[in-house]
Amino acid sequence: MSPAAPLLEFQNLCFERNDLPLFEGIAGGVREGDILQISGANGAGKTTLLRVLTTALSPAAGSLCWRGRPLPRARTRYLTELAFLGHAPGLKLGLSPRENLRWLGGLFPQRHGAAETALAVLGLADWADAPCAQLSAGMLRRAALARLLLSGAALWILDEPLAAIDRDGVALVEQLFRAHLDSGGAIIFSSHQQLALPGVKYLELAA
């Protein structure tokens, strides 16, 4: 049986800053159940590459394909099946984690009830009704990650998802990742840490 076509495939990506290449010749991709870690020294372009993959930035050269179709022809479908989490938590600090998730859940009515599941999975039950402005950086990161469960997205692209998270939190993130991969999803993330998950693929950017 031939392997399934990649969900996301990218070839020969190049990004320039001040007319000089930040990175070039970058190629890779993920299939259902794949997890790809982007690594490299500070300044190597990890965040920039992730933003290129989300189409927030345009490469100087190279191509991306989603489910076998080249972008931008497949861009609309791609963006509906993509969830991105950057450095900022993207939460309203005056609201609680539960209120943030319920507000976001209004955008995904097909995911009714997912907010409470997300709070439980990320270990936020005891802080669910506290204003986000009163939460630690680690708890804010957990609340941000909980948003992924509401999206129903096939591909998660995450920039330093383990930042500010303690050991127990990392175990919860690994549980979250494992469930998404087992359901046929895929993950691309940047991190200086390694996860205790099987089958992680690596793409290292040169400084």
What can you tell me about this protein's structure?
- With 207 residues, this protein is of the alpha/beta class.
- It has 2 domains: 1-81 and 154-207, Rossmann fold; 91-152, no CATH class.
- The chain is built from 7 helices and 9 strands; from the N terminus they run βββαββαβααααβαββ.
- It has helices spanning 46-53, 75-80, 97-105, 114-121, 137-146, 148-151, 167-182; strands spanning 8-17, 20-30, 35-40, 61-66, 69-70, 82-85, 155-159, 186-190, 201-205.
- The strands form 2 sheets. The chain has a 5-stranded parallel beta sheet, with helices on both faces. Strands 2-1-4-5 form a 4-stranded antiparallel beta sheet.
- Helix 3 (97-105) packs antiparallel against helix 4 (114-121).
- The longest helix is centred in the last third of the chain and has 16 residues, at 167-182.
- The protein is globular and about 45 Å long.
- The N and C termini lie far apart (39 Å).
- The relative contact order is 0.21.
